[in-house]
Amino acid sequence: MSKAIVLHAHGGVDNLHWEERDPGRPGAGEALIRHEAVGVNFIDIYHRTGLYPLPALPAVLGMEGAGIVLAVGEGVTEVQPGQRVAYAGRPIGAYAEERCIPARRLVPLPDAIPTRMAAAMMLRGMTARYLLHGCYPVRQGTTLLVHAAAGGVGSMLVPWACHLGATVIGTAGSPEKREKALAAGCHHVIDYRTGGVAARIRELTDGRGVDVVYDSVGQATFMDSLDCLRPMGTMVSFGQSSGAVPPFDPGVLAARGSLFLTRPSLMHYTERREDLLAHAADLFDVVARGVVSVHIDQSWPLAQVAEAHTALESRRTTGTMVLDV
Protein backbone atom coordinates (compact mmCIF):
# COMPACT_ATOMS: atom_id res chain seq x y z
CA MET A 1 0.00 0.00 0.00
CA SER A 2 1.26 3.46 -0.89
CA LYS A 3 1.73 6.06 1.84
CA ALA A 4 1.07 9.80 1.98
CA ILE A 5 1.16 12.76 4.34
CA VAL A 6 -2.46 13.45 5.28
CA LEU A 7 -3.79 16.65 6.86
CA HIS A 8 -6.86 16.02 9.00
CA ALA A 9 -7.32 19.51 10.48
CA HIS A 10 -5.87 22.96 9.85
CA GLY A 11 -3.17 24.14 12.21
CA GLY A 12 0.38 23.24 13.14
CA VAL A 13 2.77 20.63 11.81
CA ASP A 14 1.44 18.09 14.33
CA ASN A 15 -1.63 17.81 12.09
CA LEU A 16 0.46 16.21 9.32
CA HIS A 17 0.24 12.41 9.52
CA TRP A 18 2.17 9.70 7.63
CA GLU A 19 -0.52 7.18 6.63
CA GLU A 20 -1.35 4.45 4.17
CA ARG A 21 -3.40 5.86 1.30
CA ASP A 22 -4.49 4.07 -1.85
CA PRO A 23 -3.91 6.33 -4.90
CA GLY A 24 -6.44 4.32 -6.93
CA ARG A 25 -6.33 3.65 -10.63
CA PRO A 26 -6.19 6.48 -13.17
CA GLY A 27 -9.55 7.49 -14.58
CA ALA A 28 -10.21 9.01 -17.96
CA GLY A 29 -7.69 11.77 -18.68
CA GLU A 30 -5.56 10.85 -15.66
CA ALA A 31 -2.13 9.35 -15.05
CA LEU A 32 -0.83 7.41 -12.06
CA ILE A 33 2.69 8.49 -11.11
CA ARG A 34 5.27 7.32 -8.59
CA HIS A 35 7.15 10.26 -7.12
CA GLU A 36 10.91 10.35 -6.82
CA ALA A 37 10.85 13.69 -5.03
CA VAL A 38 8.36 16.36 -4.02
CA GLY A 39 8.87 20.12 -3.70
CA VAL A 40 8.12 22.14 -0.57
CA ASN A 41 6.72 25.66 -0.95
CA PHE A 42 5.25 28.36 1.26
CA ILE A 43 1.84 27.81 -0.28
CA ASP A 44 1.86 24.37 1.37
CA ILE A 45 2.03 26.13 4.74
CA TYR A 46 -0.85 28.41 3.76
CA HIS A 47 -2.90 25.30 2.94
CA ARG A 48 -1.90 23.58 6.19
CA THR A 49 -2.86 26.54 8.37
CA GLY A 50 -6.08 27.28 6.47
CA LEU A 51 -4.97 30.69 5.21
CA TYR A 52 -5.67 29.37 1.72
CA PRO A 53 -8.80 27.20 1.80
CA LEU A 54 -8.77 23.55 0.70
CA PRO A 55 -11.69 21.84 -1.07
CA ALA A 56 -12.11 19.39 1.81
CA LEU A 57 -10.38 17.62 4.70
CA PRO A 58 -8.69 15.23 5.14
CA ALA A 59 -6.35 16.25 2.33
CA VAL A 60 -2.91 15.52 0.93
CA LEU A 61 -0.91 18.73 0.53
CA GLY A 62 1.79 19.59 -1.98
CA MET A 63 1.74 21.27 -5.37
CA GLU A 64 4.97 20.12 -7.00
CA GLY A 65 6.57 16.80 -7.77
CA ALA A 66 8.42 14.64 -10.26
CA GLY A 67 8.58 10.93 -10.97
CA ILE A 68 7.64 8.13 -13.33
CA VAL A 69 4.30 7.46 -15.03
CA LEU A 70 3.04 4.03 -13.92
CA ALA A 71 -0.24 3.91 -15.83
CA VAL A 72 -2.62 6.13 -17.79
CA GLY A 73 -6.37 6.26 -18.08
CA GLU A 74 -8.61 6.33 -21.10
CA GLY A 75 -7.96 9.04 -23.65
CA VAL A 76 -4.55 10.13 -22.33
CA THR A 77 -2.17 11.27 -25.06
CA GLU A 78 0.03 13.75 -23.17
CA VAL A 79 2.23 11.14 -21.42
CA GLN A 80 2.85 7.39 -21.45
CA PRO A 81 3.89 4.74 -18.91
CA GLY A 82 7.60 4.74 -18.12
CA GLN A 83 8.02 8.43 -18.97
CA ARG A 84 9.68 10.84 -16.55
CA VAL A 85 7.40 13.75 -15.76
CA ALA A 86 7.06 16.75 -13.46
CA TYR A 87 4.32 19.18 -12.50
CA ALA A 88 3.50 22.23 -10.42
CA GLY A 89 0.12 23.64 -9.46
CA ARG A 90 -3.34 22.30 -8.85
CA PRO A 91 -4.71 19.84 -7.98
CA ILE A 92 -2.86 19.50 -4.70
CA GLY A 93 -1.74 16.07 -3.55
CA ALA A 94 2.04 15.83 -4.06
CA TYR A 95 2.93 14.68 -0.51
CA ALA A 96 2.45 11.06 -1.50
CA GLU A 97 4.49 8.13 -2.76
CA GLU A 98 2.02 7.67 -5.61
CA ARG A 99 -0.92 9.71 -6.90
CA CYS A 100 -3.33 10.11 -9.77
CA ILE A 101 -3.30 13.49 -11.51
CA PRO A 102 -4.81 14.96 -14.68
CA ALA A 103 -2.37 14.09 -17.45
CA ARG A 104 -2.75 17.57 -18.97
CA ARG A 105 -0.91 18.98 -15.94
CA LEU A 106 2.16 16.78 -16.47
CA VAL A 107 5.24 17.94 -18.36
CA PRO A 108 7.61 15.34 -19.89
CA LEU A 109 11.18 15.88 -18.72
CA PRO A 110 14.03 16.27 -21.22
CA ASP A 111 17.19 14.21 -20.72
CA ALA A 112 19.09 17.28 -19.50
CA ILE A 113 16.84 17.70 -16.43
CA PRO A 114 17.25 15.10 -13.62
CA THR A 115 14.00 14.02 -12.00
CA ARG A 116 14.93 15.11 -8.47
CA MET A 117 16.04 18.51 -9.77
CA ALA A 118 12.72 18.93 -11.54
CA ALA A 119 10.86 18.38 -8.27
CA ALA A 120 12.83 21.26 -6.77
CA MET A 121 12.38 23.76 -9.56
CA MET A 122 9.03 23.51 -11.32
CA LEU A 123 6.89 25.78 -9.16
CA ARG A 124 9.62 28.30 -8.37
CA GLY A 125 11.05 28.26 -11.89
CA MET A 126 7.76 28.67 -13.72
CA THR A 127 6.86 31.39 -11.21
CA ALA A 128 10.07 33.20 -12.13
CA ARG A 129 9.14 32.80 -15.79
CA TYR A 130 5.71 34.47 -15.49
CA LEU A 131 7.12 37.19 -13.24
CA LEU A 132 9.75 38.12 -15.83
CA HIS A 133 7.71 37.67 -18.99
CA GLY A 134 4.08 37.88 -17.92
CA CYS A 135 3.69 40.42 -15.11
CA TYR A 136 6.28 42.82 -16.51
CA PRO A 137 8.36 42.58 -19.72
CA VAL A 138 11.84 42.51 -18.22
CA ARG A 139 14.50 43.34 -20.80
CA GLN A 140 17.81 45.13 -21.31
CA GLY A 141 17.76 48.32 -19.23
CA THR A 142 15.05 47.25 -16.76
CA THR A 143 15.84 47.99 -13.11
CA LEU A 144 14.02 45.78 -10.62
CA LEU A 145 13.83 44.97 -6.92
CA VAL A 146 13.50 41.40 -5.65
CA HIS A 147 12.59 40.84 -2.01
CA ALA A 148 13.92 37.62 -0.45
CA ALA A 149 16.48 37.43 -3.24
CA ALA A 150 18.15 34.36 -1.71
CA GLY A 151 14.88 32.45 -1.37
CA GLY A 152 13.47 29.74 -3.59
CA VAL A 153 11.96 31.98 -6.28
CA GLY A 154 14.54 34.72 -5.82
CA SER A 155 17.50 32.42 -6.40
CA MET A 156 16.06 31.56 -9.83
CA LEU A 157 14.58 34.93 -10.73
CA VAL A 158 17.79 36.89 -10.07
CA PRO A 159 20.13 35.14 -12.56
CA TRP A 160 17.35 34.89 -15.14
CA ALA A 161 16.67 38.63 -14.89
CA CYS A 162 20.39 39.37 -15.19
CA HIS A 163 20.52 37.21 -18.31
CA LEU A 164 17.74 39.35 -19.79
CA GLY A 165 19.85 42.46 -19.23
CA ALA A 166 18.21 43.85 -16.10
CA THR A 167 19.87 45.62 -13.20
CA VAL A 168 18.82 43.59 -10.16
CA ILE A 169 18.59 44.90 -6.61
CA GLY A 170 17.81 42.34 -3.93
CA THR A 171 16.92 42.32 -0.25
CA ALA A 172 17.98 39.71 2.27
CA GLY A 173 18.26 39.48 6.04
CA SER A 174 21.32 37.54 7.15
CA PRO A 175 24.93 37.96 5.94
CA GLU A 176 24.77 34.43 4.53
CA LYS A 177 21.66 35.23 2.51
CA ARG A 178 23.11 38.52 1.28
CA GLU A 179 26.21 36.69 0.07
CA LYS A 180 24.03 34.13 -1.69
CA ALA A 181 22.00 36.87 -3.39
CA LEU A 182 25.19 38.51 -4.65
CA ALA A 183 26.48 35.15 -5.88
CA ALA A 184 23.22 34.65 -7.78
CA GLY A 185 23.85 37.86 -9.69
CA CYS A 186 22.33 40.76 -7.72
CA HIS A 187 24.09 44.02 -8.55
CA HIS A 188 23.19 45.38 -5.11
CA VAL A 189 21.81 43.71 -1.98
CA ILE A 190 20.06 45.62 0.83
CA ASP A 191 19.70 44.36 4.41
CA TYR A 192 15.95 44.83 4.91
CA ARG A 193 16.30 44.50 8.71
CA THR A 194 18.04 47.87 8.95
CA GLY A 195 15.09 49.68 7.37
CA GLY A 196 15.38 52.47 4.85
CA VAL A 197 14.99 50.20 1.83
CA ALA A 198 13.12 52.85 -0.18
CA ALA A 199 15.73 55.49 0.60
CA ARG A 200 18.52 53.15 -0.47
CA ILE A 201 16.67 52.35 -3.70
CA ARG A 202 16.46 56.06 -4.49
CA GLU A 203 20.21 56.36 -3.93
CA LEU A 204 20.95 53.44 -6.23
CA THR A 205 18.66 54.71 -8.99
CA ASP A 206 19.57 58.42 -8.83
CA GLY A 207 16.19 59.21 -7.34
CA ARG A 208 14.16 57.54 -10.09
CA GLY A 209 13.01 54.32 -8.45
CA VAL A 210 12.80 50.84 -9.95
CA ASP A 211 10.60 49.75 -12.84
CA VAL A 212 9.14 46.74 -11.04
CA VAL A 213 9.15 45.24 -7.54
CA TYR A 214 8.74 41.49 -6.96
CA ASP A 215 7.44 41.10 -3.41
CA SER A 216 6.78 37.67 -1.89
CA VAL A 217 7.02 38.91 1.69
CA GLY A 218 3.68 40.72 1.93
CA GLN A 219 2.61 42.71 4.95
CA ALA A 220 6.07 43.68 6.22
CA THR A 221 7.31 45.09 2.91
CA PHE A 222 4.27 46.07 0.85
CA MET A 223 4.02 49.81 1.49
CA ASP A 224 7.80 50.30 1.36
CA SER A 225 7.81 48.43 -1.94
CA LEU A 226 5.39 50.99 -3.40
CA ASP A 227 7.79 53.75 -2.34
CA CYS A 228 10.59 52.05 -4.30
CA LEU A 229 8.81 52.36 -7.66
CA ARG A 230 9.20 54.97 -10.35
CA PRO A 231 6.04 56.73 -11.59
CA MET A 232 3.87 54.21 -13.46
CA GLY A 233 6.02 51.38 -12.12
CA THR A 234 4.64 47.91 -11.43
CA MET A 235 4.17 46.28 -8.04
CA VAL A 236 3.99 42.47 -8.21
CA SER A 237 2.77 41.01 -4.91
CA PHE A 238 3.07 37.24 -5.28
CA GLY A 239 3.37 35.97 -1.71
CA GLN A 240 2.85 36.83 1.93
CA SER A 241 5.43 35.05 4.07
CA SER A 242 5.16 37.83 6.69
CA GLY A 243 1.34 37.89 6.62
CA ALA A 244 -1.44 39.13 4.36
CA VAL A 245 -1.41 42.70 3.09
CA PRO A 246 -4.20 44.62 4.85
CA PRO A 247 -6.87 46.46 2.84
CA PHE A 248 -5.82 49.87 1.56
CA ASP A 249 -7.25 52.79 -0.42
CA PRO A 250 -6.45 52.40 -4.16
CA GLY A 251 -5.76 56.12 -4.12
CA VAL A 252 -2.41 55.19 -2.58
CA LEU A 253 -1.36 53.98 -6.03
CA ALA A 254 -2.22 57.31 -7.61
CA ALA A 255 -0.50 59.30 -4.89
CA ARG A 256 2.73 57.39 -5.45
CA GLY A 257 2.82 57.94 -9.20
CA SER A 258 -0.06 56.13 -10.95
CA LEU A 259 1.39 52.74 -10.02
CA PHE A 260 0.24 49.38 -11.36
CA LEU A 261 -0.49 46.53 -8.93
CA THR A 262 -0.96 42.85 -9.68
CA ARG A 263 -1.46 39.79 -7.46
CA PRO A 264 -0.69 36.94 -9.87
CA SER A 265 -0.99 33.17 -9.60
CA LEU A 266 0.95 30.47 -11.46
CA MET A 267 -2.29 28.53 -11.87
CA HIS A 268 -3.78 31.29 -14.01
CA TYR A 269 -0.65 31.79 -16.11
CA THR A 270 -0.42 28.04 -16.86
CA GLU A 271 -4.10 27.06 -17.00
CA ARG A 272 -3.99 26.34 -20.74
CA ARG A 273 -1.75 23.40 -21.61
CA GLU A 274 0.04 25.36 -24.31
CA ASP A 275 0.98 28.01 -21.72
CA LEU A 276 2.10 25.35 -19.25
CA LEU A 277 4.38 23.77 -21.86
CA ALA A 278 5.76 27.18 -22.89
CA HIS A 279 6.63 28.05 -19.28
CA ALA A 280 8.26 24.65 -18.74
CA ALA A 281 10.20 24.83 -22.02
CA ASP A 282 11.64 28.24 -21.18
CA LEU A 283 12.59 27.02 -17.71
CA PHE A 284 14.24 23.85 -19.01
CA ASP A 285 16.16 25.94 -21.54
CA VAL A 286 17.72 28.37 -19.06
CA VAL A 287 18.57 25.53 -16.65
CA ALA A 288 20.09 23.32 -19.35
CA ARG A 289 22.20 26.24 -20.62
CA GLY A 290 23.42 27.08 -17.13
CA VAL A 291 21.75 30.49 -17.03
CA VAL A 292 19.87 29.39 -13.91
CA SER A 293 21.45 26.92 -11.51
CA VAL A 294 19.24 24.67 -9.41
CA HIS A 295 20.89 23.57 -6.17
CA ILE A 296 18.91 21.50 -3.69
CA ASP A 297 19.95 23.25 -0.52
CA GLN A 298 17.89 21.22 1.94
CA SER A 299 16.14 17.86 1.81
CA TRP A 300 14.15 15.59 4.08
CA PRO A 301 12.42 12.23 3.68
CA LEU A 302 8.76 12.68 2.80
CA ALA A 303 7.74 11.25 6.17
CA GLN A 304 9.59 14.13 7.90
CA VAL A 305 7.74 16.93 6.13
CA ALA A 306 6.92 18.54 9.50
CA GLU A 307 10.62 19.36 9.92
CA ALA A 308 10.70 20.94 6.47
CA HIS A 309 7.66 23.11 7.25
CA THR A 310 9.19 24.23 10.54
CA ALA A 311 12.45 25.22 8.85
CA LEU A 312 10.65 27.11 6.09
CA GLU A 313 8.34 28.99 8.47
CA SER A 314 11.27 30.08 10.65
CA ARG A 315 13.15 31.42 7.60
CA ARG A 316 16.05 29.04 8.25
CA THR A 317 16.08 27.91 4.63
CA THR A 318 17.69 29.29 1.51
CA GLY A 319 17.14 28.35 -2.11
CA THR A 320 15.31 25.14 -2.95
CA MET A 321 14.24 22.18 -0.84
CA VAL A 322 12.74 18.78 -1.58
CA LEU A 323 11.18 15.78 0.11
CA ASP A 324 12.71 12.52 -1.05
CA VAL A 325 10.22 9.72 -1.63
UniProtKB/TrEMBL annotation:
Gene3D superfamilies, sorted: Medium-chain alcohol dehydrogenases, catalytic domain (3.90.180.10), NAD(P)-binding Rossmann-like Domain (3.40.50.720)
GO molecular function, one term: NADPH binding
InterPro entries the UniProt entry points to: ADH-like_C, ADH-like_N, ER, GroES-like_sf, NAD(P)-bd_dom_sf, QOR-like
EC numbers on record: 1.6.5.5
Gene: qor
Keyword NADP listed: yes
Key words, A-Z: NADP, Oxidoreductase
A GO-annotated cellular component: cytosol
Name recorded for this polypeptide: Quinone oxidoreductase
Record carries keyword Isomerase: no
EC main group: oxidoreductase
Enoyl reductase (ER) domain mapped to chain residues: 11-323
Pfam families in alphabetical order: ADH_N (PF08240), ADH_zinc_N (PF00107)
Listed CDD domains: QOR2
